[in-house]
Amino acid sequence: MTPEPAPTIRQLLAFYLEAGVDCALTDEPVNRLTDPDTAPAPPRTEPREAPPPRSFMQGAAPIPAARGDAPSPEAAISSAREAARTAPSLEALRDLLEKFDGCALKNTATRLVFSDGNPQARVMFVGEAPGREEDIEGLPFVGRSGQLLNRMIAAIGLDRTSAYIANVIPWRPPGNRTPTPQETQICLPFIQRQIELVNPDVLVTLGNPSTQTLLSTREGIMKTRGRWFDYDTGTRVIRALATFHPAYLLRSPSYKRMAWQDLRSIAKALEETKRA
């Protein structure tokens, strides 16, 4: 029996990309099958010359904190709340997020994915977290799910110039994994402030994670979709509706009929608030 030829580098890269492996965690490969007790010791290197004192390092970038100096989740959440509360505008909020180091997702993401669309829009859509395409472009919902979202909102006469789009998590989790509860809680004050600053007439949560996070419910999307909630920003109560995430509709197109019903409810609510 003739053995199969070894895969090419291109084939291996395609396999890893399809599996969600699209970033390296270390500079050198690690053999995870090696017995840690018998693993070879790392090569010895010559001691490096000590760096000059800080006073002589004019213009040097700040030294990142060691892993052991990372703030606790409670401290990071408290810091996020304080920072978000002080943002007077969306531009200031974005600048705060660019400088915020309390969420580890920032260290593995390519860039911040803050928002897209019209900040004065009457309707705001919020998903869970950026994916690979969003991480590259720096904009939410630009991949296949974003293309479907464009068609969904176009069906009720909207586009990205008349809607505002964001995510609960502004940085892509590695490999598109699910954000941890701690990561969600750290980022929550920023999206809450973002909603408050946009001040839409209608808030639409896309998918189960954003619905449960923003609307404080433990029910699944099958029970919450199509239902209206009151979202209190502290200064105003906004009508909020939960619906399916476009990525879920791509996997389960049979639910598009329900999503269309939700979109019609959104259009009706916008018309009613316009008349009022």
Keywords:
276 residues; alpha/beta; 6-stranded mixed sheet; 11 helices; 6 strands; 10% strand
Could you walk me through the main structural features you see in this protein, from its secondary elements to its overall organization?
There is one protein chain. This protein is α/β, with parallel strands linked by helices. The chain is 40% helix and 10% strand. The protein is built from 11 helices and 6 strands. A 6-stranded mixed β-sheet has the order 1-3-2-4-6-5, sandwiched between helices. Helix 2 packs parallel to helix 7 (181-198). The longest helix is centred in the last third of the chain and has 20 residues, at 256-275.
DSSP strand count = 6
Structural class, judged by helices and strands? alpha/beta
Strand order of the largest sheet: 1-3-2-4-6-5
Largest sheet: 6 strands, mixed
Treating each run of at least 4 consecutive H or I residues as one helix, how many helices?
Answer: 11
What percent strand? 5-15%
| Distance between the first and last residues' Cα | 77 Å
Which of globular, elongated, flat, extended, rod-shaped describes the shape? Answer: globular
Helix content: 40-55%
Helix and strand sequence: HHHHEEHHEHEHHEEHH
What's the average pLDDT? 85
Rg (CA only): 23 Å
Show unreliable segments: 50-68
What layout of secondary structure does this protein have?
Elements: H1 9-18, H2 73-86, H3 90-99, H4 105-108, E1 116-117, E2 123-127, H5 132-137, H6 144-154, E3 164-167, H7 181-198, E4 202-206, H8 208-215, H9 221-224, E5 228-232, E6 237-243, H10 246-251, H11 256-275
